[in-house]
Each structure stands twice: as structure tokens, then as C-alpha cells.
Amino acid sequence: MEERYEAMKELGSGNFGVARLVRDKRTKELVAVKYIERGKKIDENVQREIINHRALRHPNIIRFKEVCLTPTHLAIVMEYAAGGELFERICTAGRFSEDEARYFFQQLLSGVSYCHSMEICHRDLKLENTLLDGSPTPRVKICDFGYSKSALLHSKPKSTVGTPAYIAPEVLSRKEYDGKVADVWSCGVTLYVMLIGSYPFEDPDDPRNFRKTISVKAQSIVLFSTFLV
């Protein structure tokens, strides 16, 4: 890695490890690299991320480039989205106009629809995993396929994964569910936040309490189902 890439800065960190911006010494291209410590952290989620992400080629999905091994880490090299997270853009704006929300949401749906056509569900769609390139007319780039599953290669989704504010009610059931349908729910939450500037189902007096968010979500679904009957 050190022979080929020049480290520029850290982009972020999480349970997976660290993401860094690096420059290809030969081409001068800026790319993002996710470093995952070798050992227990390289689990089946990492394996699925690599297998699924590398199969996807779409303008609204971060391009997977290659995987490298260092003596201490596994490094996933990807396209760099210079525009940052869509979440940050909403935080600055408060909320989007209908036209702006439509512009970004259509691109998000295009990327998600392509994933589903390839029989891959993302399972963690959210504003933080929706990046923007650095162009004057920003292009949406879906990233982070760590929770993704392929209907062709993997078992049907069953585990409760994702981000509480965005996950569909059936994901909480601990039973098998349709990952594509769950993705569509997450897209709906994303659109809501873009237009309203807050999360649906959250307690306005305690918006960061995700246990309450899940409880209110479940109650709302039950009430809505009763109304339909």
C-alpha cells in the first residue's frame, strides 16, 4: 500500500476500523481506503461486502476498485466522493425543497433499483451512507455494503441489522424478511428526512432515544394495519 498510495488524511472511523483518503502515486487519482484490522474483524460481513460491492457498476454507487493486504490490515480501495455525506448537506440546509429532494431521491432510487436487479439488498440505507461526488451538480453515491446480502449467494435476511431510525418493522421480528422491501422502507425514511428535516416516528422530546423510536414505529404500524382492516 505504501509503495503505491500516498496517505492524505483520515476520513472517518468506526467499528470496522479507519477510512483514509489516499492518492495513487502513479495516476494521481484520489481514492478512499477502508482499513480493517486482520483477525476477528474480517468476518462474514466483510466477505459479503467485498463480494457484493465488487459486482456492482452503476453511476449512483461508489465504485469498488480493489482489495489489498498489509501485514496488519485488509484494505478496501474505493472511489472517493469529495462532496461528503448527504446527511451533512441536510444538516446545513435544515431540509430540502421538493425539487432538491426529488433530484437526490431519484438518484438514490436508481442506485437501489440497480442493486435489486442484481439480487443484492443493502440493508443499511441511510443519509450517512449516501455520499455526493464533488461536481457542481452533485451525483448521489451509495456506499457501505457491510450488511448487504445477495439472494444468489447468501441466505435470506433474518438478523436485525441497520440503523434504528431507518429500519423497517419486519427487520425487528427476528424472522426471515424481504431485504429489498426493507430497503424501500429505508428509502422512504430518507425522503421524509430530506423534506421534513427530522426522522419519522421519533419522540420529539427525546429524538436520540432509538428504543422509543422503535416502539413508536411498531405502535404506528399496528394502528395503521387496524385502520386498513
From TrEMBL:
Keywords: Abscisic acid signaling pathway, ATP-binding, Kinase, Nucleotide-binding, Phosphoprotein, Serine/threonine-protein kinase, Transferase. GO terms for molecular function: ATP binding; protein serine/threonine kinase activity. The keyword Nucleotide-binding applies. The keyword Phosphoprotein applies. It comes from the Eukaryota. It comes from Festuca arundinacea. Residues 5-229 form the Protein kinase domain. One of its GO terms (biological process) is abscisic acid-activated signaling pathway. This is non-specific serine/threonine protein kinase. The lineage of its organism: Eukaryota, Viridiplantae, Streptophyta, Embryophyta, Tracheophyta. PROSITE patterns: PROTEIN_KINASE_ATP, PROTEIN_KINASE_DOM, PROTEIN_KINASE_ST. InterPro entries: Kinase-like_dom_sf, Prot_kinase_dom, Protein_kinase_ATP_BS, Ser/Thr_kinase_AS. SUPFAM superfamilies: Protein kinase-like (PK-like). It catalyses: L-threonyl-[protein] + ATP = O-phospho-L-threonyl-[protein] + ADP + H(+); L-seryl-[protein] + ATP = O-phospho-L-seryl-[protein] + ADP + H(+). Its EC number is 2.7.11.1. Belongs to the protein kinase superfamily. ATP binds at residue 34. It holds the Pfam family Pkinase.
